[in-house]
Amino acid sequence: MGIEYATYRGTYRAGVIGHTGRGNYGHGLDAAFVGLPDVQLVAVADPDDEGREEAVGRTGAERSYADYREMLAQENLDLVAIGPRWLDQHEAITIATAEAGVKAIYAEKPIAPSLEAADRMLAACDKNGVKISYAHQNRAYPAQALVREHLASGKLGRLRVIRAFGKQDRRGGGMDLLVLGTHMLDLMRHFAGDAHWCHAHVTRNGRDATAEDVETAAEEGGLIAGDDVIAQYGFDSGVLGSYECGRAGDGGGSPYFRMEVCGTDGVLAFWSSPDSPIYAFP
Does 117 lie in the same domain as 73? Predict the structure, then answer.
């Protein structure tokens, strides 16, 4: 039997967890609940005094705490935004939040520095009936929504291939896949469902990567390798996905960060931006 999530009517009590100097509040997750109807942002937690004060100013939170555990114990929260980018904190914060009786969590990506940590986090949420969502806001951008509509209506014919590219900047390779690829892989799932297999070619300085090339990612992101990754994913109905992230000669950047969705009747291309146009090809 699946977990039954309770419906809730009234005002949701929301809190925010950040850590200034160690991932801060991610990409603006402290503002995730600000201004939403039926949501009251009651508290912010941040061990850094100055950062905590600034977050209160940005969010209008009624109270603040140096320790997120104290906030969870005192505030009877319904919703919590977990903001720090640094992955070494995600497991402890997520499990403590799930066990505190909240209804839902909105968290910064990536999930965790290892698959084992991610499994423990999701298990804690399942055990306590907590819904958790990660900051893959690209799904809500206009271009991506239009692509999904074209797929559903059949205007692209049968979906065949999804190609995605990272920013190709100094993070090209394993770091790009970790911090940027998560957005594109989420969009692949959005368009094609879950992948059933994956294989990849990882290189460093033009040669095959080896165990000696494995290193710890920045921001305590776990183990990564390579400065160039080409990965392929297999989805239902023969749909093939690919993700490429190297290091461009011009330094890379947002112009490289794009996706092409290919059907039997055409191709739609767009960039990872809320104001991206869509380019259609026959």
Answer: yes
Q: Assign 249 a pLDDT band (cuts: 50, 70, 90).
A: confident
> In the structure, what pLDDT confidence band is assigned to residue 260 with cuts at 50, 70 and 90?
very high
Both 193 and 271 in one domain: the answer is: yes
d(CA 115, CA 118): 5
In a domain, 1, yes or no: no
Quick one: which H or E segment has residue 238? none
Q: With respect to residue 207, please indicate whether it lies within any of the assigned structural domains.
A: yes
Q: Which domain holds residue 52?
A: 12-135
Beta carbons of 13 and 78 less than 8 angstroms apart: yes
Torsion of CA 132, 137, 143, 149, to 10 degrees: 10
- DSSP structure string for 140-197: GSHHHHHHHHHHHHTTT-SEEEEEEE---STTTTHHHHHHTHHHHHHHHHHHH----E
Amino acid (one-letter) located at 49: D
How many residues can be counted in the chain? 282
Contact 169, 252 (CB under 8 A): yes
At 172-186, the pLDDT tens digits run 999 999 999 999 999
Mean pLDDT of 203-223: 95
Work out whether the CA dihedral 11, 110, 160, 276 comes out positive or negative. positive
Strands, DSSP E only, in the chain? Answer: 12-17, 39-45, 63-65, 79-82, 104-107, 131-134, 159-165, 197-204, 207-208, 215-216, 223-224, 228-234, 240-245, 258-263, 266-271, 279-281
Place of tokens 């900051």: 135
Measured CA to CA, the distance from residue 71 to residue 165 in angstroms comes to 40
